[in-house]
# Entry
Amino acid sequence: MEREGHLFDIFYTTEKDEPVINLYIKTDEEVVIARDTDFQPYMYIIPREGKKKDLKRKLEGLKFEEKGDRIKIFSIDEKKKKDLQDEKTVLKAYVKHPRHIPKLKEKIKDWEDIAQISEYDIPFYKRYLIDKQLKPPSKVYVKGVEIETDGEIKKIALEDVEQKDEKDILEPDILAFDLEVVDEKVVMCSFYKKGFNKVLVTYEQDYKEEYVEIVGNEKKLLRRIQNIFRNQDYTVITGYNTDQYDFKVLRDRFDEHGIDFEIGGHDEVRFKRRGRNYAAKVRGRIHIDLYPFVSTVISRTLDSETLDLNSVAEEVIGKSKEDMEWSDIKKSWENKENLDMLASYALKDSKLAHELAENIVPQIFSLSSLIGMTPFDTCRTSYGQLVENYLIKEAAIKNILVPNRPTQYQIKDRRTSGRFTGAFVYEPEKGLYENIALFDFKSLYPTIIVSHNISPDSLEREGCGDELKIEVGDEVYSFCQEEKGFFPEILENLVTERYNIKKEMKELGKKTQAYRNNYNRQNALKILSNAFYGYMGYSSARWYSRESAEATTKLGRDYIKKTIDMAEEMGLEVVYGDTDSVFLSAENIGEKTEEFGKKINSELPGLMELELEGMFKRGFFTYTNKGKGAKKKYALLKNNGELKITGFEYVRRDWSPIAKETQKKVLQQVLERDVEGAYNSVKTVIEKLKKGDIPLEKLKIYTTLTKRPENYDTKAPHVEAAKKAIKKGEKIKPGDTVDYIITNRGKTISEKAQITKYADNYDAEYYIEKQIIPVSERVLKVFGYTTSQLKGEGKQSGLDRFS
DNA sequence: CTTGACCGGGG
DNA sequence: GTGTACGGTCAAG
# Structure
């Protein structure tokens, strides 16, 4: 029988000591598992010069036992493969089971006749996706017969699987959930899905809302959670930080009550180790934890420096919820007060996660299908893995041998010896500027790599007749231009496809599905192509090439400097420049921009292009404590009055709300040319602080405890505050975020720190000196104000220098 | 200046 | 699981 469906997950099982690949496929009607029993594990062994025959004979005769495992190579194919610059004959050695691969490698690694062993550490399921060129969660075609099973899921004995259109991607059907936990017990669990929202509660009382369901006790709550997870119709199960929190709590509570943690319908939730963390794998569903993806990928496009659900949702989808204080959640539950509010808070959390997922999951899916990884892996990826997975997939197609991962020793070595000059920064002269045009290079590094053929396989190529020599410091690197390199060829395709899609998008209505799909695809292309440069200099990369990375930044510096020179020649004032962007100012900036853009672009090679990113009415630039122009710290005022603030403290959570509010206000007033007003705002806040007029709410500072307070060697305010609270009977454990106030009792800051709950006064001096002054000084010293003036101690002087 | 500890998200 | 993967900041050395 033949059918089509979206391949959304893959893993292997061992049956009768043979590996079986299981493909999870969602067809229009149901989810099926297609089972492939024919895929064989292998690795490559490269013989030394002239030793091929000897080696092959020895390998064929090899038989050994390890921990009861009888291991032998049961067949060897000879292949030709490209190894960076040379073509080599390699032996493709097949074994019976994936776990034999590392054992075989260990056994033969010191053999005289072997020059190198390759591709021995590519997980079996990934190998399958790569070799079959499958791109989850896009559409595949499968052929096979149904197998009789007693389970709920239909199984197919796979005869053939083929990738269809990789742009035909699974439509996610999302269930979001969220736990409320008090004293390490689950007291509420909320669910949100289209047409289904529910809050399970263990405490019995009259609840106003119909979504509340009373379940009596924690054990019944867990049973009901299990029931909902199993029986609701959905493909994606999601939440925020569910790997590190919700799923772990659930596992512990299921354990405690002696219930099997089975929620996928036919298998236990598995915790897969990924570096120092674990990821919860639910077979039959796609468990997407939004947080790791937000923190590695989405965060780059965000202004917010904190990545809590609320701030992220606010920026990504423009929505947030009224946050409930942690202490209030606890209080509400302990006193059984306001439980309706607590339930609605719980529902809002999963609703928000759901809305965020509606936006982010399609991005993850699109990236998955481009890279060829499962969505499960993609949402937990690092940039290094993203690039490397793609490279391995492309290497297989181009018959290139995958380089081995560096050893720990090599990684250390690369880290210490591999530092090199980065991007060029044109430091801003502090102050206010009018009429600003912001130009930047479209995909600067990718286009440099393509236009100059920067690639590990083009580097120092012997006998090359057309070399590009790049001087970096004392070194000269040469890149052969005769043949397109591995990286440039890939990047050219990625960048060109993205340009084409963006063109296509202009013809489409923004609300159409086609537009959204295209948007996500071009976004995935952008994420991937922008990651290549970093990958070349990433110490754990298989295709590490410090020389290529160095050459890329060198060329980048040259291009941005050339841009700055040309701008100056044309009489434009250069305000600030960083890596790939320049801020230019001129009275008649509107007229000059077009001419400038045309001139620059006529001189740029190949795919390279400088683009006008935006025009601003006014901009504010500041400098660092050392008196140099501050990088990446500026505030811009758009023509429509909107503010764009970059790099200032006001977004960070380790500052008190009053400090953040004050800084934002000051920046706003400064940009409106009301410097004196800004100064007065600071003075007013300081006065209020002195009088004790600022509510404690605005003075809280948040920090998380990562271990038990008594285990800290250093005296930090949040630790000391926690210790004092514990003495008073408060329960605070590792992982808790404490909010504290610096009070006026005690000598050192640590002595003065008290959990908000136990604080009834504040140390005005501290908040003025350590919070308000530093954040406002950062802005106002540019206009000649000194610290003592801000404190109201000195006279004003030189105020109009910049106004 | 280098090294090592700490921290993120969640309740 | 063809295992054992972050990156930035800040105080201490």
